[in-house]
Request: fold
Amino acid sequence: MKRKLLVFTILLGSFLSGYTQEYFPKNNGVKSVNKNFTAFINAKIQQSSSEIVENGTLLIQNGKIIASGTDIKIPENSVIVDLQGKYIYPSFIDIFTDFGIEKPKKMTPSRRSTQYHSTREGYYWNDHIMPENNAIDKFSYDSKKAKKLQKLGFGIVNTHIPDGIVQGTGLLVALNNHATNNKRILNQKSSQHLSFKKSVTSNQSYPTSQMGAIALLKQLYHDAEWYAQGNSDQKDMSIEVLLENKELPQIFDAGDKKNGLRAAKIGNEFGIPYIIKGYGNEYERLAEVKKTKATYILPLNFPKPYDVTNSFDASKVDLASMRYWNQAPFNPGKLAQNNIVFALTTADLEKPEDFLKNLRKSVDHGLSKAKALEALTSTPAKLLKQEKSLGKLKAGFDANFLITSGDIFEENTHLYENWIQGDKHVINDMTIVDITGTYDLKVAGTIYKLVISGKPDKLNSKIILDSIKLNSKLNFNQNWLTLFYNSNKSYKNQFIRLSSLVTNQNSIEGKATLANGSKINWVATRQKDETPLKDKSKETEHLLSEFIPVSYPNKTYGWDKLPQAQPMLIKNATVWTNENTGILKNTDVLVKNGKIVAIGNSLDAGGALVIDGTGKHLTSGIIDEHSHIAATSINEAGHNSSAEVTIEDVIDPDDIDIYRNLSGGVTAIQILHGSANPIGGRSALIKLKWGESADNMIINNAPGFIKFALGENVKQSNWGSTTRFPQTRMGVEQVFIDYFQRASDYDKKWKSYNKLSSREKAKTNAPRFDIEMKTLAEILNKERFISCHSYVQSEINMLMKVAESFGFTVSTFTHILEGYKVADKMAAHGVGGSTFSDWWAYKYEVNDAIPYNAAIMHKEGVLVAINSDDAEMSRRLNQEAAKTIKYGGVSEEDAWKFVTLNPAKLLKLDKQMGSIKEGKDADLVLWSDHPLSIYAIAEKTMIDGIVYYDYKKMKEMKEQASQERNKLVNLMIAAKNKGMATKTPEKKEKKHFHCDSL
Reply:
């Protein structure tokens, strides 16, 4: 006890001594200091998410907590507030808001006024990088909005300017309506904010895509590191501020689960522990989210059910959207169960007042109350580096706390007061007796059931007699209760009127005026251990629904569990080897550990799964050299060169076209950048491992490729743009020459620098690391290969000459529909041709295309492949290859190589795929018929020995999805019938990307 008193005395002295620091003059009276305390006694105090004090005392003075707990000595000069039966919680903290921030003014976009360069002198070259922006410069305290947040339990908010890719610093504000900004503002630079979205205040075009935003951020971090080492001879005010703010909490507004993972990957690459503002669907990829070790900010914007009472409307809603309605409320609980640290926010809510309702719904759906409180108090405090003053009710902390009627996570709990910085903000009058509950009401010898529900300022009554609900109306003001109801259902105008001054919530007594005017006594006795009935709407909203299990991906045809590799023996199949052995009849192929280990007759299964291939054909998997599926964006059109971007940053592992391609026997693809600019972005070479993460789809140790383009698209013939160079085919050639010369100079600088000794390097400024120039230098050094979008023979010749002048070879001309005109020159240069089988005349520069193109190039010695460039065609590449037999008389084996071995060679992957050979990857397709036949069905498609597509399994999954849809439709109809608000179904149109998609 002596020790407690000593600590108390020290704390008291420290707080009192602080008042001598005041320096504002007081000109309107005698200057005095309030030295009184306020003691809240007999309360259940939730000191932190894990510490509860029963019948405790909270002692505060001048905005600080002096003591919290039991056996607290209360000073004589204390105002005592008895909170018998009530609870005290720390006030909530919202780490992600735009509270009080002036909305950025949107600049009217115009194609012809598009900027390609920044107009800001002395700052970073891109307008969307604005670390120099500070929220405090745009801040104006909004007392009305503050009141709304106070009612939800919030005492502190972190606010920021939600504009741009690097948005500047945040501001930490106490929602104290009784103070001024000099007290309310806790930290003028509390955080630094980022996103993948451009600023609305600039028309600078770059970046036009998410992969461009990612590349821009990466280049910024490289530039900042280079600048910090003193290498720049120019001042950059943006980078200087970025470096100043690097120790601030870095909050990244990512969006959905995939963008969160992309942001975390950037953070991990540069050693920046991002705090990621999520979307609410992180539960779909929990293992990946956990692996990032990132901290999250979770919104509670749970979707409404769809109005699916009309079967046609119901058909518009896909299974993934239905699941999201069911699964979203479980998101916080799922993350908590996986020990992923997160804070909660009001952000993204259509109606912020739904926050507490959705918070309680999360608790109903698996989030523990302790974790919920932690996510609203100590976690955001720690993330903002304010854990020594905010988020707990301990001595020395700011006096930010809530007084409630009970457990704050229970629906019928009332929030009475929200104390912020020691100042009281009344939400509901605490002196009002809480009369919610179920009572036995006795009037004139008749016993009714009386149910009172709602909030203190808006109570509802329900009177039931013999299971019949009687019309009633209740008014409750300053503890005076008046209630009238029909005495009998049959007599609608026979009213009984009750009144009482309520002093005891367990027993209410008063006078009743009967329908005949006589007055008698009445009494209502509260029932014990019975939860008040909820109204229909609330009952549905808090209904704990069954969690529909997540699949991978979380949509139709997703796996309950990811398929695993197992030894397999395919027996007695017709095997198209694509090797010198040709087509082998009645042959066995043994697969182990993801590799082809044996080819022959009567092979010993040795415990492997045996698949009967009798009458069927076994081939290597189809490889699409030119695809645009499985990516969230295709073109970065902001500059005439975008070599710094990579499709690997925007792979979409949930794209249904992956599964559709598997159904057509496709096992690997090159996802190419589009043709918006002469020098496009880097490719992603992936295997179609349906259900796996984006990173797990990328082919290990694959060579680097990049997309170049010629023709109408790059000179913007159809865009209406007149501001971006080049505008002519001549200009395109100059772009290539200019960039390769710059890349050559860049490469020489680095090679010279790297030859220096450590002592010499210490005296020499390092060259600036440039992702774009490094990529182009890789082409010059034959470390990266070009796949070039091409049509017209003159431009095809031009690029080969440019390449030869810089000492490298173009790897592949794709489209190449005039390849037949220059096939001899292509063969001499050593470039391959990846073309369409029979597309022509879909735009002017394709007028000379012929279906014999592939056959002519092949006969001239060009390595030829048939590609898709189209999500629909890619499912039928076996049939596209077959067309070359009709148009040009190509042999069946060579035609088949056009979609298997040849694209593998073009992509430098033929050592591991493209044919059936011992030691190669087990990327195989078992066909029901001749693989070039329109009747052939891919019965099994396997990658690395794992069956990712099975025709029979597909049918089962389709039926399961139908049953699940029906279940979810019924749940949504039930929700609507019980009063839950619904939304109108809308069909989500899938966007198919092509070369010119912007």
The longest helix spans residues 951-977. The CA atoms of residues 120 and 994 lie 35 Å apart. The chain has 26 helices and 44 strands. Confidence is low (pLDDT under 50) at residues 1-21, 530-544.
